[in-house]
Amino acid sequence: MRYQVWAPNAADRVEVAVDGAHHPLSRDTVRAGWWQGEAPAGDYAFVLDGGRPMPDPRSPRQPHGPDGPSRAVDHAAFNWSHTGWRGRPLPGAVLYELHIGTFTPAGTFEAAAERLDHLVELGVDFVELMPVCPFPGKHGWGYDGVSLWAVHEPYGGPEGLKRFVDAAHRKGLGVVLDVVHNHLGPAGNYLPAFGPYFTDRHHTPWGSAVNLDAPGSDEVRAYLIGSALGWLRDYRMDGLRLDAVHALADDRAVHFLEELATEVDRLAVATNRPLFLVAESDLNDPRTTTPREAGGQGLAAQWSDDFHHALHCALTGESQGYYGDFAAAPLAAVARTLTRGYFHDGGWSSFRGRHHGRPFPPAHGHRLLGYLQTHDQIGNRALGDRISTSLSPGRLACGAALVLTSPFTPMLFMGEEWGAATPWQYFTDHTDPNLAEAVRRGRRREFTGHGWAADSVPDPQEPATVLRSVLDWTEPRRGPHRALLDWSRTLIRLRREHPELTDPDLAAVRVEFDEDARWLVVHRGPYRVAVNLGTAAAAVPAAGEVVAAFGGNRRSGDRLTLDPDSVAVVRR
C-alpha cells in the first residue's frame, strides 16, 4: 500500500507505523513538504522524527477513536443500491435538520434510516445531518470533530453513513452534511504537529485561525477542499452546510469559499447531478450567495438568523441579548425580513454597537434559509428548551405557517413538526477529565453570568443530559402533537402544490400588521397567510376562501376574524 502525508514540520524523518512496525517514508521530490512510500496494509499511524504515532490527517477511518490509528477505506467497494439517483436542486425545497445521536434512542445511522418514511410523509426534500466527523467519546454535537475525512464510529462509521445516504436516495430524499472548516476540536487534533494548519495572523472564538492565507495555506486549503469533495463524491452527499463561515479569515484575492464553490461546481458537472453549498454566516453580506461571475463567492444559500430572531421575538416576547434589536417592534421586524431578506442591511445594530450588513437582492429569497428552530437556537439556551415548552399549540402553528409559506428555503429542526416537548441540550462525552471539567465549568459560568443558578444548568457530561435530548417518538401519536404534525404536513403540501407559496421574489411579498393588536397578514400572490398573536380575537384583511387553518376563524365581509393564537391560509 502507498502511504503519503504532508508533514513540512518533520525535520529529519517520517515513518508509517503499520500494526506496530515502523517503515520509513521518503521526501517527495516534486511536492514540497510531502513524504511518501510503500508499506504493508493495515491500521497505520505516522511518526515524525521519532515521536509518538499520530493519526493520518487525511484518515478515511478512525476505528479506535480520534487518538487511535487510521484505516484505509475502499470507497469503490460499496454496493450502492440506488444508482439512478440524479439529485435535486435546492431552490423550492424544504430541509429537515437532524442529529444522528439523538434522532432515535439507538443513535445510529441505521436507526435513523428506519425513520425516513416519517420524513417522506412529512413532505421534506432534504435531510441535513449535523457533523459526523469523529469526536471523543460516544455523545456530542459534532462541532468539536477532528479527522475531517472520517466518520464517527459509534454512529456506524463509513459503511453506516453510506447505507443511510443510499436509503434516503431510494426514498427520494437528498442528504446535506454539516461540515466544520473554521476550527477543530480540542481533543484528538494532531494537525499542528504536521504543518502550519493554523495561524496566529487571525484569531477566532476557538483560538488561532485555520491557515487560509499565511505561508503553507495552499496545502491547508487543498486539505479542506479535498475533504468537502470527498463527502460529495465518495458518500454521495447532495450538498454541504458550512459552519460559521464568518470565522474563515482569508485575505487572499480569491477567498477560500469562492475556491471551494468553484471545485464543487466542477464536481457537479463531472457527476452529472446538482451539488450545492449552504453557509452559516453572521456577515449579512449578499456576496456570499452572489454568483461568482457577478463578483460573489457563489454559494447556493445561507442561513437567515435575522428572520429567526424576528419571528422568535414575535412569538415569545423575549428581548435579551441579540433579540433586543428585533423586540422593539417584532411584527415590523418580521415584515422587514419577509420583504427585504436581512433585517440588518446597513443599519444600526445595538447588539454589535455598530452598523451592520448591506441590502439583500430582492429577487433571490430562496438563497436564504428560513427557520424557527435550529440546533443552535435551542441548544445554546441554558436549559436547551424548545419554544414548544412555553408556547401554545396555536402559536406554534402560527410560527410554522410563517416559515413554511415564506419566500425563503424553509428548514425544520427534528421534532419541530410535531411540537416536540423534549429539550435539546448541550452534551459532551470528553474522555479527558480535565477537558470535561473545563467544559462543565465554562457552561455554568456562561449562564450564571446571565442570572441562571449554577445547579440549574445541565451538566454536559452527565449521561442524563443526552438522554433527555433524544426525541420521543410516541409524541406524534398524541394530541396536541398529532394536530401540529398534520398542520406541518398540510403547509408543506400547500407549498408544493401552489407555486405562489414558493415564489422567492421578496419584492412581490406584501405584509400588513398591527403591532398593538398583534396580527399580521402576509400577501403571497392570491394567498393571504393571516396570524393572530394577540390575546383577543382580531378582524384582519384577508378576503377569500380559507384553504387551511389552525384555530378558530369566521368570515365577516371582506375581513376574517381570527381567535387568539390562530392562523389561516386564505385564497383570494
Describe the global form: elongated
Please describe the biggest sheet, giving its number of strands, its sense, and whether it closes into a barrel: 8 strands, parallel, barrel
**Tally of contiguous helical segments:** 15
What proportion of the residues is helical, as a percent range?
25-40%
Which structural class matches the secondary elements? Answer: alpha/beta
Strand content: 15-25%
User: If strands are numbered along the chain, what order do they take across the biggest sheet?
Assistant: 7-8-9-12-13-14-17-18
Average of per-residue pLDDT values: 96
Radius of gyration: 25 Å
Would you report the number of β strands?
A: 26
Low-confidence stretches: none
> Termini, distance in Å?
68 Å
What is the strand and helix layout of this fold?
Blueprint (H helix, E strand, L loop, with lengths): L1 E5 L7 E5 L2 E4 L1 E2 L6 E5 L5 E5 L46 E4 L1 H4 L5 H5 L2 H7 L3 E4 L27 H14 L3 E6 L11 H4 L3 E7 L2 E4 L6 H17 L5 E4 L13 H16 L4 E4 L21 E3 L1 H12 L7 H4 L2 H11 L7 E2 L4 E2 L12 E3 L4 H5 L13 H12 L4 E5 L19 H16 L14 H6 L12 H17 L12 E5 L4 E6 L2 E6 L5 E3 L4 E6 L2 E4 L2 E4 L3 E6 L1
Parallel strand pairs: 7-8, 7-18, 8-9, 9-12, 12-13, 13-14, 14-17, 17-18
Antiparallel strand pairs: 1-5, 2-3, 2-6, 4-5, 10-11, 15-16, 19-20, 20-21, 21-26, 22-25, 23-26, 24-25
Structural account:
This protein has 572 residues and is α/β, with parallel strands linked by helices. It has 15 helices and 26 strands. It is 26% helix and 20% strand. Strands 7-8-9-12-13-14-17-18 form an eight-stranded parallel barrel, surrounded by four helices. The longest helix is centred in the middle third of the chain and has 17 residues. The protein starts with a strand and ends with a strand. Pathway: Glycan biosynthesis; trehalose biosynthesis.
